[in-house]
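TASK: fixed-backbone design
INPUT:
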């Protein structure tokens, strides 16, 4: 009985989290599949788990991308052509080797969903304020020591995941207050850091 209650609680919590996530119903293709189609008809490319250290140059011909999955690679930078993805709404860069937010992301004004979890990012810089359509930001399990105050300008955010890093109580309070209309998730803070 106890395990049923725990599972039920997990489902309820999970449902409240998942209800916050913008729906990604884009059809995704591998790069091999996408290259056999007309570039203008491809809206999603999946390059998950490809062992990539850089993004293939041939990706730049897909100007109508709305979704790009690059999870679980070895990326640490984005190429210059990345800024031309001016219709991109869903970007998955989790489980890579980023140590900072790539500045190219801040040119993607249509971005609604950004997953940068499980990297080694130490700061959220001022450029983040350019993402005026961003609704969901997952930066779980990074190494944050600094978040620029301009981050608070993104009042359209509905969900932010900061879990996986221990923050000071004052830090957690500051950023929870900064987003009164969003679900902001933190691990338990530590008063030892204040």
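OUTPUT:
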């Amino acid at each position: 009985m106890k395990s049923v209650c725990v599972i039920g609680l997990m489902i309820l919590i999970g449902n409240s989290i998942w209800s916050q996530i913008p729906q990604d119903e884009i059809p995704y293709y591998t790069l091999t599949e996408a290259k056999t189609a007309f570039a203008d008809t491809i809206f999603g490319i999946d390059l998950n788990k490809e062992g990539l250290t850089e993004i293939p140059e041939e990706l730049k011909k897909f100007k109508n991308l709305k979704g790009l999955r690059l999870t679980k690679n070895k990326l640490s930078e984005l190429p210059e052509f990345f800024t031309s993805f001016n219709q991109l709404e869903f970007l998955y860069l989790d489980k890579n080797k980023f140590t900072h937010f790539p500045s190219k992301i801040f040119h993607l004004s249509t971005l609604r969903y950004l997953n940068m979890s499980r990297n080694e990012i130490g700061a959220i810089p001022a450029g983040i304020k350019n993402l005026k359509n961003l609704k969901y930001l997952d930066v779980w399990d990074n190494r944050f020591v600094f978040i620029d105050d301009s981050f608070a300008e993104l009042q359209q955010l509905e969900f932010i995941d900061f879990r996986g890093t221990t923050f000071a109580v004052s830090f957690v309070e500051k950023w929870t207050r900064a987003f009164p209309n969003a679900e902001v998730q933190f691990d338990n803070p530590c008063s030892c850091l204040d």
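COMMENT: The longest strand covers residues 44-46.
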